[in-house]
Specification:
The complex is a heterodimer of chains A (about 400) and B (about 250). Chain A is built from 17 helices and five strands. Chain A is α/β, with parallel strands linked by helices and about 400 residues long. In chain A, helix 2 packs across helix 12 and helix 13 runs antiparallel to helix 16. At the A-B interface, helix 1 and helix 10 of A face helix 2, strand 6 and helix 3 of B.
């Protein structure tokens, strides 16, 4: 009988949810809209990266002729689509670096030809303003062209890249900020409606007067949350597929190479969807605790938004600026106590760099553990649900 | 008609320093419509919540259908139905779904759920609107759905906590009419709390008047009027609530 009761409760919750359009909007359209938004940004970036027209500075100190050849190749390459190549001396260049007036500056040292001839390898220095995505992309293409040109002679080219400004990451780092934010906030209305809302409408009293344990009631409600989270996960996968298509479309033929770099590999999509679903689940369990403590739906919704949004924003910003992985000490420990940080670390690990498998497992285990702990607290609170008005 | 289904002895309920119920002893017989009358904060809802196993008494004991409320709450809940004060329907569900959902929560099979829901929909007179979501219903219609939801369980005792509070005059009239019909046709033992004397006079066989947590009087309206030498029940109530002779 208990399973039948849970099933009826689940059915009721889902039916109610499916008729609350604003709620379903969050679960189904949320990921699609979000990934489309991300595609707009990424597509724009991909297009901007190959927009061309950038002025590149060069200092050729090479006493041989290969440096000159390299400069010639750069000057006449249609692939690079450069605006102009301006020659300057090393002291002029350093002066401009100090003033921050440079975007890309290539330095070919005096022993370039000598090293290539004798050692079969040489080094050039590339100064890049990495806060400019166009400069970073141009430098990257120059480096590739230079390497390929030298490679023809079976000689090796080393490139030392020096940042003119602090490095700023764009593109996919935004994913690891926006996606968790929405995943955390989307279930809020459902949880506050399902728990505090029932209490406010006085339907909870009738519900707990039924011959059904409170744990069974909680299970029914949590199961319906699970179904909604699964919908959210599936919608996230569709969102990512849509994103891949849109990035290519928006970047156009011109930006196809860069767009290809930004698309999300099909193999990692399920992992992202799972982490997003786990994140939502964790948010739901925290929401249950808050809803059991809040006296009405509005209070619950407000607290849920606050409690979930503030740490997610904090962790998201740390991730966006690249500090989440490197943060150490008490602050680093405190931030990593926030369950959402592990979802973001997981997404970073899957999307931006190849994190070791053990790190990914730890992230998921922590998120799952936090969900179970909050659920247990929620169950305890729901068990003691009182009806004093 | 001497079958006692509800029995309380020296029932006390305290919330920290506040005594909500003070030594309440009463008996309610099968098939009886019993009204609990009292001003706000008199302890009516608290008593109802103890009888529906939502609160545990601080002292004393309460038995419903032969079971102690603290010892066998699930058994009791299987045989009773509660319409809480100011309760709302699930507004995204239709009238039919609201009623069928409660039947489903009792573990009934699908055929039985459909049969009972159909019968209740007819009983509460909502055949034409059964498929409409209750969000669009008037307060009276919503209350009818809630009464129907309680009745679908075919309870041995129906607890109605201020069933007409918060709804308009017409809605209240509709609900009272429905409850009157039910008491006559279905003969379900009903306990209802109210501060509406019309409701008591129209629906109840006996009435208990609660004042500051104490059961100040109990009996039929006629018995109470005679006992307190009052012209009507209102005089009895006002006299007990204010401590003045009217």
């Amino acid at each position: 009988m208990r399973f039948q009761q849970i099933f009826w409760l689940l059915k009721k919750e889902l039916r109610s949810a499916s008729r609350a359009r604003w709620l379903m909007l969050g679960f189904v359209l949320g990921p699609l809209l979000l990934w489309s938004f991300q595609a707009f940004i990424q597509g724009f970036i991909a297009r901007s990266l190959v927009a061309g027209g950038l002025t590149v500075y060069i200092t050729n100190e090479d006493e041989g002729n290969i440096g000159e050849e390299l400069q010639f190749i750069l000057n006449h390459s249609s692939e690079l689509n450069l605006g102009a190549i301006i020659e300057l001396t090393r002291s002029q260049g350093l002066n401009m670096v100090e003033k921050g007036n440079l975007t890309v500056w290539l330095v070919i040292p005096s022993d370039f030809t000598l090293n290539l001839t004798i050692e079969k390898r040489a080094t050039i220095i590339v100064y890049v303003d990495s806060s400019s995505i166009l400069a970073s992309s141009t430098a990257h293409r120059i480096e590739m062209l230079a390497k390929n040109s030298i490679d023809v002679y079976q000689q090796e080219l080393y490139i030392v890249e020096k940042a003119i400004r602090e490095e700023v990451n764009f593109g996919l780092t935004l994913v690891t900020f926006l996606i968790p934010m929405v995943a955390v906030l989307a279930p809020g209305p459902f949880v506050s409606e399902s728990f505090a809302g029932e209490r406010e409408r006085k339907t909870l009293e009738g519900l707990i007067a039924l011959p059904m344990s409170r744990l069974a009631i909680l299970s029914g409600k949590f199961l319906s949350a699970l179904v909604l989270v699964a919908i959210y996960g599936v919608s996230t996968i569709f969102g990512m597929i849509l994103y891949n298509k849109m990035v290519h479309l928006l970047a156009g033929e011109q930006g196809a190479i860069m767009a290809a770099e930004y698309t999300i590999n099909l193999s990692v999509m399920p992992m992202i969807a799972i982490s997003v679903a786990l994140l939502s689940l964790c948010a739901i369990s925290i929401g249950i605790v808050i809803s059991c403590l809040a006296k009405d739906q509005k209070t619950a919704a407000t607290y849920i938004q606050m409690v979930l949004m503030v740490p997610t924003m904090l962790v998201g910003i740390l991730s966006f600026t690249g500090n989440l992985q490197t943060l150490s000490g008490v602050l680093g420990f405190a931030v990593k106590l926030i369950p959402f940080s592990h979802a973001i670390l997981f997404m970073n690990g899957v999307l931006l760099y190849e994190a070791p498998l053990i790190d990914l497992i730890i992230n998921i285990a922590y998120l799952l553990g936090a969900t179970i702990v909050f659920l247990a607290i929620g169950a305890k609170l729901f068990q003691r649900e009182t009806l004093i008005h | 008609m001497n079958d006692i289904v509800i029995k309380t002895e020296g029932l006390v309920k305290k919330f920290k320093n506040i005594v909500a119920l003070d030594n309440v002893t009463l008996q309610i017989q099968r098939g009886e419509v019993f009204g609990l009358l009292g001003p706000n904060g008199a302890g009516k809802t608290t008593l109802m919540r103890i009888l529906t196993c939502l609160f545990a008494p601080t002292e004393g004991r309460a038995e419903v259908l032969g079971y102690d409320v603290t010892e066998k709450p699930e058994e009791i809940r299987r045989m009773i139905a509660l319409l809480p004060q100011e309760a709302e329907t699930y507004e995204h569900l239709t009238a039919w779904e609201n009623i069928a959902y409660y039947a489903g929560m009792y573990g009934l099979d699908k055929k039985e759920i459909v049969y009972r829901t159909k019968r209740i929909i007819e009983l509460i007179g909502l055949n034409d609107r059964a498929g409409d979501v209750t969000k669009r219903f008037s307060s009276g219609m919503k209350r009818k759905v809630l009464v129907g939801r309680a009745l679908v369980l075919q309870p041995e005792i129906l607890f109605l906590d201020e069933p007409t509070t918060g709804i308009d005059v017409l809605g209240a009239r509709v609900v009272r009419h429905l409850l009157k019909q039910l008491s006559e046709r279905e003969k379900i033992t009903t306990v209802l709390t109210t501060h509406d004397l019309t409701e008591i006079q129209q629906l109840c066989d006996r009435v208990g008047i609660l004042v500051e947590g104490k059961l100040a009087a109990i009996g039929t309206p006629v018995e109470l009027e005679a006992q307190f030498k009052a012209v009507n029940l209102e005089d009895v109530f006002v006299g007990l609530a204010t401590g003045e002779r009217v």
